[in-house]
Every structure is written in structure tokens, then in C-alpha cells.
Amino acid sequence: MTERTMNITLQVWRQDGPSKPGKFERYEAKDVSEHSSFLEMLDLINEGLIKEGKDPFSFDHDCREGICGMCGMVINGIPHGPQAATTTCQLHMRKFKSGDELWLEPWRAAGFPVVKDLVVDRAAFDRIIQAGGYITSRTGSAPEANGIAIDKKTADAAFDAAACIGCGACVAACPNASAMLFVSAKATHLGLLPQGQPERKDRARTMVAQADAEGFGGCTNHRECEAACPKEIKFANIARLNRDFIGAMITSSDDVQKPQPTR
Amino acid sequence: MELNSNEPTGPLEDRWTKHRDHGKLVNPANRRKYTVIVVGSGLAGGAGAASLGELGYNVKCFAFQDSPRRAHSIAAQGGINAAKNYQSDGDSVWRLFHDTLKGGDFRGRESNTWRLAEISNAIIDQCVAQGVPFAREYGGLLANRSFGGAQVSRTFYARGQTGQQLLIGAYQALERQIGAGTVEMHTRSEMLELIVVDGVARGIVTRSLITGKIEAHVADCVVLATGGYANVFYLSTNAKGSNCTAAWRAHRQGAAFANPCYTQIHPTCIPQAGEHQSKLTLMSESLRNDGRIWVPRKKEDVTKAPGSIPEKDRFYYLEERYPTFGNLVPRDVASRNAKYVCDDGLGVGPEVAGQRRGVYLDFAASISRLGKKEVEDRYGNLFEMYERITGENPYQVPMRIYPASHYAMGGLWVDYNLMTTIPGLFAAGEANFSDHGANRLGASALMQGLSDGYFVLPFTVGNYLGTVRDLPEVRLDHADVKGAVERVENRIHRLLNAPKPSKTADEFHRELGALIWDKCGMARNEAGLKEALAKIPEIRERFWEQVKVPGTGEAFNQTLERAGRVADFMEFAELLSIDALNRDESCGAHFREEHQSEEGEAVRDDEHFQHVSAWEFTGDLGKPKLHKEPLVFERLKPSTRSYK
Asked: Where in chain B are all domains bearing CATH 3.50.50.60?
């Protein structure tokens, strides 16, 4: 395993808080190993800044295995960077070459206010789940697990939608900052399973209403979300969500549940 | 300090039922009058907070991440065990109990282990009802696989993302309760101190990671579900943020810490690529079902392309040494053998800090036997992950693997009710010393987290509150509350104002981690542990003198967060090494080189060490006080493990 090193120029978005102005600042990363991860390259720069007594730039990350959904930034205009189906933390420097200039920005969306630098507040996603992204099932009183058989195809399709990690790249990629891929992934995961049927239509209605209340835009079929999704969540889920949503509008006699207040 | 396990008596099979039948209940109308703090939102904390909220308690849940869905339980890949016996291969609660206790090398508490096995089936029911998309057979029923050397197929799984799917199930249940107003969620909030009033846990002090605001929260009881301490080694498979701070702060306030030396090393991780490495990535050990592990027999072959090394020059060391189990020997045996062949100079891959630490995991035989398609069906996502990280294609060249720190069996000492030695303070999931003894079986961590969260805490917390009934009110201006807040503020002030700031917290963490990994990792001996114990206080002293943390405490400051966690690892590492030195035997994942058979197997000393070591904080980090909880085995007589 041979090792190549490279020099990278970074333009990093710096912003102190949601209502503060922001700007790009330039940093140089020298002699970066091609085997280091993208975030390890950022660590290296930040270690240097700390030693100089300067404020290192902030970015979210945790598992660094592409599963927790905590990390994410826009790299040269693409959420999570140039490698398809890959979170920022799983990106490695061998995908870049010496002399590259990389522009790093936070997710930009009204529903995701900037906390600091590349860190945004994604609590809106939690509130969308609160609005209906669950199956009501009391702890401890569940029926026998094999009581309901689910054909493998349906179970696999539900699983594909359940793979969403809630990172927010879909919102960042969408020109309307729409959260519909996220909402539809949950509606599809639960809506395909027999256990999710009783609440299926209400779920679609209340989650969509909450997404609207959070300030996310509507879906106008750009499909940028699908291209940016590190877990390859399918755009077709949105069509399924729309069916459930329209069905709810036609068949439900309940008042539309009031969306919860944001922040 | 007295250790009373509060186990029910009588036949093992009846203990949990009997305990519940005789426990105290809280009237539904009174539950909302009790405030329960849950720290952590992983499988144990998230499931616990959701279930307690559903029962009607007033729950406050805290997580340092930006959402409860990010907790590190999410990264578990392999699966979750249950004694459903869907495969009719002879499994039962008894067998799961037997395997768990034996796998833990007879260092776990019999009653707890039985309860875990007993509850396992209800967990699967619960998760399916919540919509967890477990793998299914073509007939539509749940699929199982054999895992980690088990002789039965009892592992339920969701591709390689079982932890994610189970956590999302618990997260959705939790969000439902947050929406219903029974749980108040505090994200980006880090617990930095425990509030103890009159010897009883009554709250926590947190720091908002957004504003830096220090806040006291009082409650009727506190549950810590804050995970394990594998990051003491710096490089581990834990998330970067995983830390021991909450448990350590509780320990300093009087909670005994049990068996810290039981640390599990996972054999199938991607080796370190260079000095810059920030964490290690685990690959499910299910890979060992179809991969063959080998290194070159000759040192001069270690840099050669593996495909060019003829069969006779390959050393399939596990197959040769352990003919019955071969590549499926338990984690610790597989890990240690990898270390030994690398220490002998037979390791492969890049040289880091003077040594090649890697062995081949070769799928060539499986690909020719099963076909590429079948191998891809079984391991496709893991192969992809490996290629993404290393840039090598495992369908063409063998994977390289090396062990990494992965899980902590040790943790806060708890009784049968999961209560620590501080009344009113509970510990659940990986944060307690748990039901796994000295070693944990694969696919049992998820089982324990959810067992504690969904099934044990909802009863035992209620039993505690129903027993103490009316606790005196604690106001925020109480001297013990103010004292806890002051301790937090003073510590932050010290971190921000080291006398000679020159090094980063990560530099110190790397130094500490390398030392602990070397002296107190996969294999330990007296001389090495004594060396570590001499060096740790010195590193710690330099840390407090030289750590450099720019910025202030009253703002978003990730450098400060990290420094605080490293400071606690500096103290915890000493207790870890003291425990490893004190336990002068080999058992499970704790391997003392002085105590091994001729074949290199762990040799227990039941006469002197058939006990839980619970350490009490004395104020002097180098001199904690040891308390022993004797382990009594009524149903299963300790036997010697043999995987030959």
C-alpha cells in the first residue's frame, strides 16, 4: 500500500450564529495522506489552529462510519462531496488531488439555521417525526413477532426506505429546501408494513403539515435529493407519500392536526 | 459502602416474575408527580425514556448529540440475540443463559444473565410491533443467522444495520412521547456533574453545547445510559464523542465502578492506515463465517502481493491452532492471536509506528465455492465499506483486519434493579457493569440495552419511587446543587486557563491511548501495568499544565467539550490499569500473560477471583478502595472454556 500526499486549499464558511453575518476563510492543508479521511484532514487543520490560539472551525461529526447522520457539509456545491452514496465522514482524500481548492459550506435552508460555521440545527427533523413518524405500540404488550408474515419483497422495500440516516443532505441539495425525501422515507418505511397501516394516512398528513410549518419548501421534482442522498433513498417514495397524503385529504373526516410550534 | 445485589431468591426461572409481583407500583395519577432524568438516548436510554414517559412519569432526557437518533447504538451492525428457537435447532432461554454466562467466563451475575435471556424474546416482539424491518425469509417469517461462534441460529438482523434499525425504533417511540409532552428532550446538552443530596441522587448539572450555559436539573431519580469507555484507548470503534464523563462524575460522587478491566477487543476491524487516524471502523464479525484468516509464514513475504504467496507459505493460524472452531473462535482468542502473529513480524499492510498490524481475511475460497453473487448477497455492504475506506477491492485482494477496542463490559456497579451504590442513581446498557461477565457474546449488546430500557427500568424505577414515596423537595439554591454547579464551573475555568498552554487535548489523548493500548489492551502483564500506572499520573499532570483550549466557556466550543472528556479519561485510565493489575488471573477478555495454559488459553483463578471488583472513589486517584461482590453459581458450575 503506497502513500501519496497532497496539498489542498480550503475555503471554509465561518459564521458565529444564526443571525450573524458569515464569510469564507482560507486555509491550507499541507502533506495530507491520501489514506486519511476528509474529516481527518479537517482535524489536522484545526489542530494547527488550536496551537496558534485561533478559533478552529466547527463541524458536526460523531460515528465517522457513515451511519449516525451527524456529519455533513456542502463540498464544492455538493452535499457530502463528490463521491456518490457516501457521507462526508466516509469520504477519503484519495478522491482528491494535490492543488484542489475546496469550498465548504453548511446545509443552507430556512429549516436548518446555522449554529456555528458548518454546524446547523436540524431539530426540525425531530419535530417532523414527533408529528407522526412512528407506530403507536405500547412497550411490553406487543404480539408474537412471527404472528404476521410479511413477504420478503415488501419487507426489503420498507428496509430500503428505513435506511435514511436523517442527515439533511436532501434538504441541502434541493433548490426549494424541501424535506420531502426525508418525510417520504419515513412514510414509506412505516406505510409498507402491516403494523403501520392504522396510522398510515394520518402519518402522511401530519408529517407533511409539520414540514411546511418548519419552513421547508415544496417538492417540484428536481430530484437533486436522490442524487445527494448518501443512503440512496429513492425519489419514488415521494410519489407514495403523495398518494397517502391525498388519500388522507379525501377520506379523513378529522381536523388536520395542528402543527407544533417551531422552536 | 456495602454491595447488596438485591437478587430475588428461589429458582432462577421464577426470579424476575417474583420480583415484579412483589415490587411496589406507583398509582397512574401519581406518576406525573415524579421527575426522572435519563442521560443518554441510545438503546437503553432512548427505550427507557420512551417507556417511562409512556407510563406517565415526567421524564427529562439528555443527549450530547443534536438528535436522540445519533446515539452510538446506531453503529451496531451484526444483530440481536433472542431465544425464540424459530429455527428449531434446540435453542431455549436456558441455552442463551448458558452461552452468555459461559461466554462471560463465569464472571457475570447469574440472576441478571438469566433475566436477560428471559426478556430477549419480548424484545423481538416489541421491535417488530414498532416497525423494525428485520430480515425475513421468502415465506414472510423472520430470518435468523448463527453469530459469533454460537451453535444455534438465534440472531435477528437487519442487513448490516441492526443497531440503526433498533435505535430508530426506540427513537420514534421517544419522539412520540416528546410530542405527547411526557418527555422533555435536551439535545446538545452534556452532563458534567451528578447532584447528590443527603446521599441520594437528585439531579445533574449540564452544559448547553450551543450557548455554554451551565444548568442544574433536579429530579426524583437519575438514570445514566451513557455508554462505554472504549475511547480511553483513543483509537476505538466508538464514535468520536463517546466518553466516560457521566459515569466518571457519578463515580467521583460515590458510585462504585465495577470490573473496568473487562474491555472487549473486536477482531475484525480495518487496520490503522497512518498516524493521522482518528478512529477505527469495525466490520461485522459475521465476515469470519466465510473468510479465512492468514498471514505469510515467512517474514520476507509480508510486503509481497498476497495472491503471489503460494498456499504452502500461508499460515492459517486459527485453523491450525483451533481445528474445531477455526476462524470462528471467540473474539478474544481471535484478537490475541492476531496480535501475536503481528508481534512476531508476520503482520501485513502499512507500517505504522514501526510495526505492520494487519492480517488477511481472505474470501477467495468462498467466492470459488459459493460464487461471487452469493458472497455479495451476504457481505456486499461490508465489502463496499471496506473499499471506500481502504481503496482496495476485497473481491480481488484479501481484506486486511486488525483488532480494535470495541465494547466495555465493565461499568458502574448496579444491583438487580440496575441501581448503583448511590440510592436513586440507576445505570443501564453499556454504562453498567452489565450481564456479560468478563466477555460479551456477539449480538448481545443490543439485547441488553433494550432489555434494560424497555423492560427492566420501567419496573425498577417505579419500584424505587414507590418505595421512597415522598422525597424532600430540592431547590436550585440548595447548597449541594450550588456545590455541583461550582465544581463544573471551576473545572471549565481550569481547562480554559492552563498555566503553559501548548498542546491540544487530542495530542494528550493519543499519548494516553497508545500507552493504555500497549500496556492494558489485548494482553496485559504485571510489569507493563505497573509501567502504565507510573506514567498515567505524569501525563495527567502535564495535561492540566499544558492543555490548550481557545475560546470561552460561554459559547459553542468543540475544543472545550473534547478537553473535558479527555480529562476524565486521564483519571479513568488509572482505575482501569489498577483493576487489571489487581485481577491476577485471566478471564474472558481480560488476559494476563502470567496466567495462560500451554496452548495460550486464559486460565481463571476461581478460588481467588470469583467476584465482581467494585471500586470506591476515595479522593486519591491512585488508591481507590476495593469491594468484592462474590459470585455464586447455583445452576451452572464454572467450567473451563475450550475452543480446540
From this structure: 43-261+407-468
